Amino acid sequence: MNEIKQEIISIRRVAETIDGKIISYLKSTPLALEEDFSELVMATLKKHWLPLALLSSGVRDERLRQNGIWAIGELEAQISCIRRICGIENDPVAINSLIKPQITVTTSSENASILGEMSQTGQLNADEDEEWMQMEIPEEVKQANQMLGWNG
What we know:
Layout: H1 18-27, H2 37-56, H3 61-86, H4 92-97, H5 109-121, H6 128-133, H7 139-147
Helix pairs in contact: 2-3
């Protein structure tokens, strides 16, 4: 007889804390979702962590790509929902500042001069890569992380 291995989690939080309020909210079947609490928690975990869990277990290529596309779509839908419910408009300045430019190395002198001009105009600059990687986290993101307990 084969016994099925199960992973069990238990989450307990004081009801008056942010964590407790989130748990209470999810248990109240928000937005008339048909999922029970444990299924809702698992769906949330999958949206956030499935691609990374698959990657760490050796999954590559198209399966990883397809799961990544699915997770990103689910997370983008949640972001859109939060924006609508909270009355938050898209901030094109913030979005554009987070997009890392694609830089192509070329040996063609014609293309190199175009890249040089773009660098001088500030539209493309390989030296900015390091700055972008060390970009200061906005205060709102720090506060959201603290509310979620992600900043130790």
